[in-house]
Amino acid sequence: MNLPLRLILAGLFLIPLARTDAAEAAQTKPNVVIMIADDVSWNDFGCYGNPAARTPHIDALASRGLRFANAFLTASSCSPSRASIITGRYPHNLGRAAELHEPIAANLAWFPSVLRQTGYYTALVGKNHMTPEPPAAGQSRATKPWDLVDPGTTPDNHGAEARWTQTIKNRPKDKPFFCWFASLDAHRNWDADNEWVPENYGPKHQSEDVVVPPFLADEPATRQDLASYYNEVTRFDYFVGEVTQTLADEGELDNTLILVLADNGRPFPRAKTRLHDSGMKTALVAHWPNGIAEKGVSTSSLVSVIDIAPTVVDVAGAKMPPTFQGVSMTPIFQDADATIRRFAFSEHNWHDYEAHGRSVRDGEFLYIRNARPELAWQGPADSVRSPSHQTLRRMRDGEKLSEAQADVFLQPRPVEELYKTEDDPNQLNNLVSNSQYKQTKERLSKVLDQWTQETGDAVPDELTPDYFDRETGDSLKLGKGQKRKRGTPPGGPNDAIHIDHPGPR
């Protein structure tokens, strides 16, 4: 029988105490490396069943580690998702950061700050997109989260991965380290096509080989769009491999917890910003030879990305901030069948367009509630401008869309949606009016009500309006003297930045 993780870690921490070298004592703490892709759906890695995607390095980590089959984001939107991960809180509990490009409330703890105070060297290399609000008058400034911040791009690599391995090699050798390696792959526009290095990445993906989901058009422009997207995923994977090899070369691989995931779904119609699995489900691969008991297995345990912050603080042996709403995943590292939560909640707030949607999952069903049903969920502006979306638009005008494709433009939308996800992986069969699932709908609706109340969520009277045209993705023009308007953030009416209750878990 495997020892509990806390006992293993306790042993790791106690061994050096008989020595006089403080640096050796520090190095026994586990290192942590998070590699986060930008705009990549959960099923676009090979180890998650995509037969066309080339991700051999991520697949290798999964084969030696733990693959999470039910990991979910709190927001399928770049900065709210990252802010949620770094603070271990739901988007509406972050203040203005619930919406794209907005700062995180100043009173909230970031887990890299906790690690840094505990003696870790902390580095962010790549996409940041996380900023704190300045402290209010009389409020102390938050503890600095990073020893190093580096955008990571070079003239021949705009994926922001070029200096990841350098960061590990150049780190202080007398401290444990935490690295947040954040790729710009696979965010539009596609630069990997022009920066392709065949000896590193292999041949480019071909349009005839991609997997076209049923809500996109299976035609040349969309297939090429997907092939270019796959190229970005493969470039990200290459640097995941480079980091893994560098950790091995430095003798740190066994003592390093590696987490690989993405911030939101692919930047295509019916993915990014959506509450459905194509937007909100994430790949999550964990690799840690010293800390994961069962290697090369898949776990069906339900987890949320707000569980990452408490997990990292837990394995570092640091004190858990009271502001975290997530729960540590370490029991799953010791038993892949362990249960740490019954429910995972997600939000759809402003991302280029006015929106307010909420969802809850219980591992079998997905329940969605929409406070703005009169508005379409067409996806963010960069997706709307894409060849894939504009092809669907032309097909719509020619009345050639399938039911799955038409959902991209649907308005009004249902106020409620219910899906049995295993039977309906693309969530195309809404069961909300099916009498057979009446009790399930009522149960999950009550759970969502409880979460809304206990965490201080709200639907403000005035939400942030559209900034872009919903048909073209072009920026909406302002009149002379006008400024872009921001509405009330969703937790604003209830001062949710000061509510730490996690709701039902």
UniProtKB/TrEMBL annotation:
<feature type="signal peptide">
    <location>
        <begin position="1"/>
        <end position="25"/>
    </location>
</feature>
<feature type="domain" description="Sulfatase N-terminal">
    <location>
        <begin position="30"/>
        <end position="318"/>
    </location>
</feature>
<dbReference type="InterPro" id="IPR000917">
    <property type="entry name" value="Sulfatase_N"/>
</dbReference>
<dbReference type="InterPro" id="IPR017850">
    <property type="entry name" value="Alkaline_phosphatase_core_sf"/>
</dbReference>
<dbReference type="Pfam" id="PF00884">
    <property type="entry name" value="Sulfatase"/>
</dbReference>
<comment type="similarity">
    <text>Belongs to the sulfatase family.</text>
</comment>
<dbReference type="GO" id="GO:0004065">
    <property type="term" value="F:arylsulfatase activity"/>
</dbReference>
<keyword id="KW-0378">Hydrolase</keyword>
<keyword id="KW-0106">Calcium</keyword>
<feature type="region of interest" description="Disordered">
    <location>
        <begin position="456"/>
        <end position="505"/>
    </location>
</feature>
<keyword id="KW-0479">Metal-binding</keyword>
<dbReference type="GO" id="GO:0046872">
    <property type="term" value="F:metal ion binding"/>
</dbReference>
<protein>
    <submittedName>
        <fullName>Arylsulfatase</fullName>
    </submittedName>
</protein>
<dbReference type="InterPro" id="IPR024607">
    <property type="entry name" value="Sulfatase_CS"/>
</dbReference>
<keyword id="KW-0732">Signal</keyword>
<dbReference type="InterPro" id="IPR050738">
    <property type="entry name" value="Sulfatase"/>
</dbReference>
